[in-house]
Amino acid sequence: MNSYKAVSCCILCDNNCGIEIQVEGREFKTIKGYKGHPASEGYVCQKPGRLNFYQNHSERLTSPLKKMPDGSFKKISWETAISEIAGKLVELRDTYGGKSLAYYGGGGQGNHLQGMHGMYLRKAMDTRFIYSSLAQEKTGDFWVMGKLFGRQDVHATPDQIKNSDLVIFIGTNPWMAHGFPRARDVLKEIQADPDRQMIVIDPKRTRTAEMADLHIAVKPGQDAYLMTALLSILNRENCINYEFIQNQTTGWEELKSVLENIPVSGFCKRAGVEEKVLYDLANKIKKAKNVVVRHDLGLEQSLNTTLNSYLEKLIWILTGNFGRSGTNVIHTSLAPLIGHSEPDADGDYSWKTTVTGMIPISGIYPPNTLPLEIDTDHPGRIRGLFVDSSNPLITAADTKAYKRAFSKLELLVTVDVAFTETAKMSHYVLPASSQFEKWEASFFNFGFPDQHFHLRKPVLEPLENTLPESEIYNRLVAAMGEKPITPLQKYQDKLDENARLVIAPLYMLVRRYASVHSEAVQRAGVQPKEGQTLGDALFERILEGPATISIHEFKDQFSGTFLKHEDRKIHLVIPEMFKQIQLLVQNLHEKTDKDYPFVLTAGERRSYNANHIIRDPKWRKSDMEGSLQIHPLDAEKLNLTDGSKALCETRYGQAEVLIEISDSCHAGFINIPNGYGLSYSEDGFNLNNPFEEKERPVGVKVNMLTGLENCEPFTKTPYHKYIPAKLIPL
Length: 730
Ligand SMILES: Nc1nc2c(c(=O)[nH]1)N[C@H]1C(S)=C(S)[C@@H](COP(=O)(O)OP(=O)(O)OC[C@H]3O[C@@H](n4cnc5c(=O)[nH]c(N)nc54)[C@H](O)[C@@H]3O)O[C@H]1N2
Ligand SMILES: Nc1nc2c(c(=O)[nH]1)N[C@H]1C(S)=C(S)[C@@H](COP(=O)(O)OP(=O)(O)OC[C@H]3O[C@@H](n4cnc5c(=O)[nH]c(N)nc54)[C@H](O)[C@@H]3O)O[C@H]1N2
Ligand code: SF4
Ligand SMILES: [Mo]
Prior knowledge:
Blueprint lengths: L2 E7 L8 E7 L2 E7 L18 H4 L9 E3 L5 E3 L2 H19 L4 E5 L7 H4 L1 H8 L4 E2 L7 H11 L6 E2 L8 E5 L3 H4 L5 H10 L4 E5 L5 H5 L2 E3 L6 H14 L5 H7 E2 L1 H9 L3 H8 L3 H13 L3 E5 L1 H4 L4 H14 L10 E2 L39 H5 L9 E5 L3 H4 L3 H10 L2 E6 L4 H4 L3 E4 L18 E4 L15 H11 L17 H6 L1 H13 L1 H6 L10 H11 L2 E5 L18 E2 L3 H12 L11 E7 L23 E3 L1 H7 L6 E6 L3 E8 L7 E5 L49 E7 L1
Parallel strand pairs: 6-7, 6-15, 9-10, 9-13, 10-11, 12-20, 15-16, 16-17, 21-25, 22-24
Antiparallel strand pairs: 1-2, 2-3, 4-5, 4-17, 8-14, 18-19, 21-26, 23-24, 23-26
The chain binds ligand MGD (2 copies), iron/sulfur cluster and molybdenum atom.
C-alpha cells in the first residue's frame, strides 16, 4: 500500500492551519500540525484529526447525475452532463436574459482557488447575481468599511491580537470558532500574562469568557445599546485620542454631538449592564497601550447588524487604536475574497435584483432574498441557479422556503463532493474532486503586517470520475460557445496541464500583488533572479509551499493602498447609522413576545461542528446530538431535566431537541449548534429514492427554525442569534 506524508491544510474553518497528513492508500491515518506554515506554526485544534471523515465516506459523488421525471437520479457521462447543462443555460439566458440566472457559493472554508473559475461561467451566463453565505453574515460589516475607509473590499483584521495588551471580544467565541491564527494558544498567552487583559462581551459564559479578565453578559441582541453607551462614556471620560482624530479622520464634531445626546443610563439598562462596568471598561481602554476589538456572528447575526459593525469600529478608531502594533489594522489581499459595489452614474444600481430590488454589497447578494427572487410570479424571476461548494437548502435561512423555491427552478445545478440536500433538489449534480485531490488555496489571508499564502498541491489522485471545478467551468464555458481559458504557458516543466489551468488566474493576481506591494514583497525576502520579474519570483515562492508573501510597515496603513477615500482619512460620519442610533433612543423599551418567550441562537460554534463540511456524524467525539442549552431556572420552570427531549418551536418551524442544562446561558436565552441534522447512511445514498433517510439524521437542521423575514431590513442578514422561540416538554 502506498504510504507517505503530505503537507496540506485543514479545511474546517477559515484559519486553514497547515497540516501534515500520513496517507496510507487513500486513507488519512494521522494528521499533525505542520510547523513550516508561517501563520499556524504547527498549531491545530481538535478537528483536523477527523478529516478522513471528509475525504472518505459513503456519500461521496462519483458520477454526474441527472434527475428523472419520477424524482430518481440517473448516472450520466460528463459529456452528456456538460452539453445538457450548457444548452439549458444558453436557452434561459437567451430567452429571459442573464438576470434570470444566478450563482450561489463558489468556495467554502478552504476552497477558493477552484471557485474563482466560476467567474468565467458567470460571464457566459451573463449574470452578476452571486449569492453567498458571506451575505448572511458579513455584508453589513463590508458596507460600513466601505463608508469609513472608502471601499467595501478594504477589510480590517484582528491579526494583531497576539501583540495587544487589551483584547475585546464582542459576540465571538474564539476558543471554539477561532477566527485568528493559533487562537487557543493566543488566548492562553493572554490569560497567563499579568500585563495583558481580555474582555468578553457575550450573553453566554463561553470558554473564552471563562478565560477573560472581565466578562460582560450583555442581554441578547442589545449590543448596540451597550456599545453606544460605551462610546458616549469614552467621550465623557476623555478617552478619545484627539491627535489621531485630528490627523486621520473627518467628521468628529458631528459624531461627538450624537454621542453627547445618548441617555447612557437607559441604554445600559436596556443592555443589561451596570453603568459602572462600562466606565471601568472605558478607563481600561484609556490606560492600555494598544487595544484590539474582534467581533463576529454575535453582532452580525443579531439585532442591529450593520449598526453593530459601525459601533464596534468606532471603539477602536476613536481611541486611536488603528494602524499600530497590537491594534486593529487593514490587511492586504493576494486574491480578493470580495469586491466593491457602488451605484452607477445615475445613482442607481443596474444590477438590483428583479423582485426584491436588493442591491449588491461587495458584489454579493443575500440568501434571505433568493427564494422570493425565484418563487414569485414575475416575468423577470430567477429561473436557473448554479450552486458550487454550498448547501443553501439547509444552510440558508428558512429551509421550507428554499425547498419551495428550488422546486420552481427550471434549472438547478449543484457541484459538490457529497450528495447534499441541495444536490438532491437539483436537476444535475456534478461530482467535484475533494480539496485533497486537486490544487487549492484559500483567500482567507488576513495577516498584517506579515501576509501569507498557501497554495496546496493535491495529496491524492482525484477519486474516479470526479473533476476539479476549474475543469468543469472550462468545459461548460466552451460548450456554451464562449472561449475557455487557456492553461498558463509557463512552468510546463514543473506543472501538468491541469495545474496550469487552475493557477492561470492566480498567476495574474500574484504579478499584480508584487507590483502593488513591491517593497513589502521584497522585505519578505523575495528576490528575482537575473532577468526575472518580482511577480515571477513571488509566484515561484508560492509554488514551493506555504509562504510569507509580504511584510509591510505599520506606516503603510495610512497610505492610499489601504485608505481609499481621496483625502486618505477615515470618514466617521455615516448618516444612515446616525438615523439608526436615533431609532435606538426611540425604542428604548424592549418589546417581548409572550408567545415565544425565549431568544434562540440557531447556530452556535462548538467542538464538533464545522459548518456542513463533514456528513458522517461519527466524526464527532462529543455532543453527538448537538444539544439545546438552557439555564437551570428556565429548565426548572418547564420541568425539563438534563437529557430530556423537548420541542423547540419558532414562528417558522419546529424541531425535537435534546436538553442540556447549563448555567453558562443567560436565563431566557437558549442555543443549539449549526452543522447538524445532515442525512447520512453507512450504505450510501439511494439514487432511486434520493430523499430516503435510511438512518435518522443526528441533531437539528437549524434552518427549519429560521425564517426569511427574521433579518436586518437593510442587508437582509438573518438574525440567527435572535429568534423568538418556545419550548414544549415532550
Ligand atoms: N467549531 C467551529 N468553528 C467554526 C465554525 C463551525 O461551524 N464550527 N464555523 C466558522 C464560521 S463559517 C464562522 S462565520 C465563525 C463564527 O464564529 P463566532 O461568531 O465566534 O461563533 P458563534 O458561536 O456562532 O457565535 C459567537 C458568540 O456569539 C454569542 N452571541 C449570541 N448572541 C449574542 C448577542 O446578542 N450579543 C453578543 N455580544 N454575543 C452574542 C454566542 O453566545 C457565541 O458565544 O466560526 C468559524 N469557526
Ligand atoms: N441557522 C444558521 N444558519 C447558518 C449559520 C448559523 O450559524 N445558523 N451559519 C452561517 C454561516 S456563518 C455560514 S459561513 C454558512 C455556511 O454554509 P455554506 O456556505 O452552505 O457552506 P458549508 O456548510 O460550509 O458547506 C460547504 C459545502 O461544500 C462542499 N464541499 C466541500 N469541499 C468541496 C469541494 O472541494 N468542492 C465543492 N464543489 N464542494 C465542496 C461540502 O460538501 C458542503 O456541501 O452557513 C450559514 N448558515
Ligand atoms: S483552527 Fe480551524 S483550520 Fe485550524 S485546525 Fe482547527 S478547524 Fe482546522
Ligand atoms: Mo461563516
